[in-house]
Structures are given as C-alpha cells and as structure tokens.
Amino acid sequence: GLRVGLRGPLRKLVLQSVIPLLLRLQDPSRDAAESSEWTLARCDQALRWGLLEDTVTVAHYDSPEALSRICHCLVQRYPSHTPSFLSQTQGYLRSPQTPLRWGAAVLLGFLIHHTSPDRVHQDLLDSLLQDLGQLQSDPEPAVAAAAHASAQQVALLARAQAWPRRPGLFNLPLPLLRPGLWHRSPPPRPPPVYPNSPFQPRSVIGRWGCLG
C-alpha cells in the first residue's frame, strides 16, 4: 500500500526477498508461483524498476531475454547486494524440486553475466563452480545443460578478473609493455545460452491483476 519508494529496513527486506521470489516463479505449486508473481509486481511498483512486463513474461513464458533484463537491473542498481544475490541463488541449486534447480542454474548464469569483475570474491566464484560442476551430473538433462552454461559464465568472469595479468607480465621492463595495456578493458563476455525450459509455470495471466 506504499505510495512512495521503499527506504531503509523495508527496502533491504525487499532486496533480500527478490531472489526467492524470482525462483518461486518456477515452483511446481500454482499458488506459490502466482503469489510470487503478484508480489514481484508490487515490488516493481514500489521500487520503480520498470520490469513489470519482463516479470510477467518470465512467469509465463520462461523468456531468457526478459530474465536477462531483470538480472541486469538488479546488479546495476544494487551492486553491493550482488554477492548476496549470487549466494541466495546458489542455495537453490540443491533444491529437491527439479524446476527450482533449473531456475537457479539459469538465474545464476544471467546474474554472473551482468556482474562486474570487481564485485565478486574468488572464494565465491570457486564455490559456485564447485556446485555447478556437481549439478552437471543432475539426472534431469535440462538442469545439467543449464549448469554447464552457467559454469562457463563463472569461468569467464574469473578470467575477466585476472585481466590483464599474464604469466611474466610483471617481470617485463617498462619500455616493453605495450602502451595502454593497463587501461584496456577485458573482452566482452558472450551471454549464456539455455535450451527452452521443460518446466512451464501453471499460472494464469491476469489472475492477480499484474497486467492491470
């Protein structure tokens, strides 16, 4: 019922809840999926994300483009919360529910793709790689494929963190270093590519008034 942007503890609480809400869009329970969609729509309105259409599209069509735009918004607007977003998503990789494991693997890949290299510590990246590596043996092929694609994104981010550090670079005489080497940006990271989701939510568009 708030008419102004969220601030202080309430804003922090919403940011702590956005990852579980996004993942619950994949919940096998129709009520859980639809209530998450409704709540995300209210969060979008209160925090003025401008992502209502993307949220509804993700809820009903598993659109990777829409999910990518949501992840870009989250990590760009709240960079200090990025490690928390990643850690929360990581926890769902062990979910006993197959659609949630798939959703966590996909969400993790897009979050990592839009994350700046200086926002994540190596320890977290190592932990993510370990869990995604284990998930590549998942009995559900779609989950294993999503984990493989997201693990590649983690590896690309780790490589970007090391740029332009190369073996022997610091031992070279200064005149031998190419001009501008220290100011060059790492090469762009290609976005992750996932197969279509076999786990379609069972919500009904418009039931919660999200398109009103």
From TrEMBL:
It comes from the Eukaryota. Pfam families: HEAT_MROH2B_C (PF23227). GO terms for cellular component: cytoplasm. InterPro entries: ARM-like (IPR011989), ARM-type_fold (IPR016024), HEAT_Maestro (IPR055406), Maestro_heat-like_prot (IPR045206). Residues 6-154 form the Maestro/Maestro-like HEAT-repeats domain. This is Maestro/Maestro-like HEAT-repeats domain-containing protein. It comes from Mustela putorius furo (European domestic ferret).
